[in-house]
Amino acid sequence: MPCRTLRKSAQPARQAVAECALELRRIGDKADLRQRILNLIAKLFCPKT
Amino acid sequence: MPGSLKEETALLLQDYFQHRGGGAALPPSATAATLRRAAAELERRERPFFRSCAPLARAEPREAAALLRRVAAQLEADGGLNWGRLLALVVFAGTLAAALAERGCGEGPRRLAEALAAYLAEERGEWLREHGGWDGFCRFFGRHGSQPADQNSTISNAIMAAAGFGIAGLAFLLVVR
To answer: What is the CA radius of gyration of chain A?
Structure first.
């Protein structure tokens, strides 16, 4: 059954995409927050730069 | 103009992908330099994850580009886009591009840069423009803290200032008592 085979092989691919997106979201949010904090610290303590 | 944003994005991405693949050319602009630096730092911090992503680019460039678009769509499905997510997506695309180039697919990086540029400039163009375009990216990642030396300097300044306040507070308490 080609359809069934296709569904079976598509399942892990979909899962890989979902896991990848989830991890990228976590990494991206962490990088965003880190940079916001650095920018805030820089603004408070090095206002001239 | 969506065309110019798309072209600018594609050029920036192609420059980063070439640099990631070992290209020694100087960055063509301050924005390209900021993107290279911020992306390299994120890739260094999250190296195990990005290395584990390389095998995802086992197919041809067109399929890798389709995978990139699916990941991008799911990435922003919850909570939208922010500069950190955009940077993570660029580093992920760079990982796929490097993996394709290593397998001898020379046009892979260009195809991925075009696919991601089309996604960012056309589907997320409104968000990009609202946040100042690539100049906004430069302001966010380029001002302070992207260079490790700058970060150390900023953090040292903060620690020194906090220590200063603490000493002043203690002196005040001693005088009052």
So the answer is: 21
The closest of B60, B46, B34, B54 to B142, measured between CA atoms, is B34
- B2-31 residues touching A, CB cutoff 8 A: none
Whether the CB-CB separation of B31 and B154 falls below 8 Å is answered with no
Contact A32 B85 (CB under 8 A): yes
Taking only the tens place, the pLDDT of each residue in A4-49 is 444 455 666 788 899 999 999 999 999 999 999 999 998 888 766 5
A42: nearest Cα among B81, B82, B146: B146
From the list A24, A45, A49, which residue is nearest B75 (CB)? A24
Under 8 Å between Cβ of B38 and B20? no
Check: CB of residue B127 under 8 Å from CB of residue B81: yes
Quote the CA–CA distance of A12 and B130 in Å, as a whole number. 36
Distances (CA, A) of B85 to A10, A31, A35, B58, B82: 26, 8, 12, 24, 5
pLDDT at A44: 86
pTM of the prediction?
0.80
Residue of A21, A32, A41 with shortest CB distance to B83 = A32
Return the residue of A nearest to B54 by Cα.
A20
**What is the CA A7 to chain-centroid distance, rounded?**
26
Give per-residue pLDDT as tens, B90-137: 999 999 999 999 888 888 899 999 999 999 999 999 999 999 999 999
